[in-house]
Write a structure and sequence with these properties.
By secondary structure, the chain is α/β, with parallel strands linked by helices. Helices cover 29% and strands 21% of the residues. It has one domain: Alkaline Phosphatase, subunit A. Strand 1 (2-6) and strand 2 (13-17) form a beta hairpin. The longest helix is centred in the last third of the chain and has 25 residues, at 270-294.
Length: 373
């Protein structure tokens, strides 16, 4: 199959040979269905990122509490090396697409996401990221755009997403916009959101008693690395789970991204990878504490790709690693998938990244698709 695409930033035409879309929909078994799904993405988190966090944390991670492990093939529609946009769109919509695509297929047309279908089914939804909230991974669950860097266009889609929780950086895309003079902070308030900035409150200081929907800006642009003081991922996740689960018979879908593991890989900064991995794992611990008590929540933990070609080298000791990198970009490694809760058995094996979408729908017990008008 041949398809012609136009580069969003150069306008040049490129002819590429496309991979066929591979869809292997799981059979919905007569087993307990998940009421809630918490989908956690450690951006850029390959096996060595996990190993380095473990061996730098006294040889233990909360991730070891997961009972089911699989591997996914992370390549994009037209490239063996994926980016976060194509990877997250595969998770959210079950289709392979081109690098840079946000919730659109290879033809640039919108594809419905699992978060959008959850909203249509009356469920509550939320997204948390340690990047900007308009970055590629969260954007691919709640927006549709030809190009991942169209941040101000992406947040316009959030206005009508229905998400009850939006937590991440990037305030300037909302209230100091270059493409227009709209103040999206005010527009979100008019949509029923409580909007809070990190300048005024920390996540722990937010009282959710009378809050229906929350938009929390954790930074004006990109949040700091955890090593420089960022500390909101775990408390934000706990707050979001409690809010989405409260008085809720219909269930929820929550995306949690540890975004900056990837940034450490791009920077070839082993300490950043390790500290971000441990921060993500601390959040995993809190999520699993909830899931174990709740009994109705499926937790899935994976990555979109590995970043850096990261390796632990000869001469390493526990809590004192010698590391090297083969790249400052993404690699094509198979990516681990961890699952815990109702439906976890479907996540064993090796499969396409698109299968995570179909496996989540099966875990919810969704047979026919509920579509946007």
């Amino acid at each position: 199959m041949i398809i012609a695409l136009f580069s969003c930033d150069t306008g040049k035409k490129a002819i590429i040979t496309a991979h066929p879309q591979i869809v292997e929909k799981p059979i919905i078994k007569d087993t307990k269905k998940a009421k809630n799904i918490i989908f956690m993405v450690g951006d850029g988190m390959g096996i060595t990122q996990i190993s380095s966090g473990m061996y730098s944390n006294d040889n233990k991670l909360n991730l070891e509490r997961m009972r089911t492990i699989g591997l996914h093939k992370c390549y994009a529609y037209d490239d063996l090396i994926t980016d976060s946009a194509a990877g997250a769109t595969a998770f959210s919509s079950g289709i392979k697409t081109y690098n840079g695509a946000i919730g659109v297929g290879p033809d640039t047309l919108p594809v419905q996401t699992i978060l959008e279908e959850a909203e249509l089914r009356g469920m509550k939804t939320g997204m948390i990221a340690t990047s900007t909230i308009d970055h590629a991974t969260p954007a691919s669950f709640a927006a549709h755009n030809m190009y991942r860097k169209n941040y101000e266009e992406i947040v316009l889609d959030y206005l009508n997403s229905g998400c009850e929780i939006l937590i991440g950086g990037g305030q300037k895309s909302f209230d100091r916009r270059e493409m227009d003079e709209r103040n999206l902070t005010k527009e979100f308030v008019n949509k029923g959101y409580t909007v809070v900035s990190h300048v005024d409150k920390t996540i722990s200081e937010i009282n959710m008693t009378n809050v229906e929907k929350l938009l929390f800006y954790t930074a004006d642009s990109s949040p700091l690395p955890v090593a420089q003081g960022r500390d909101y991922l775990k408390p934000a996740s706990e707050l979001s789970i409690n809010h989405l689960n409260k008085n809720n018979d219909d269930g929820f879908f929550l995306l949690i991204e540890g975004s900056q593991i990837d940034w450490g890989g791009h920077a070839n900064d082993a300490n950043m990878i390790i500290t971000e991995m441990i921060d993500f794992d601390n959040t995993i611990g809190a999520v699993l504490d909830f899931a174990e008590k709740d009994g109705n929540t499926l937790v899935i933990i994976t990555a979109d790709h590995e970043t850096g070609g990261f390796a632990i080298q000869k001469g390493s000791k526990m809590n004192d690693l010698k590391t090297e990198f083969t790249s400052d970009y993404h690699t094509a490694d198979l990516i681990p998938v961890f699952a815990f809760g109702p439906g976890e058995e479907d996540f064993n094996g090796i499969y396409e990244n698109t299968e995570l979408y179909h496996k989540m729908r099966a875990a919810f017990g969704w047979e026919s698709k509920k579509k946007l008008d």
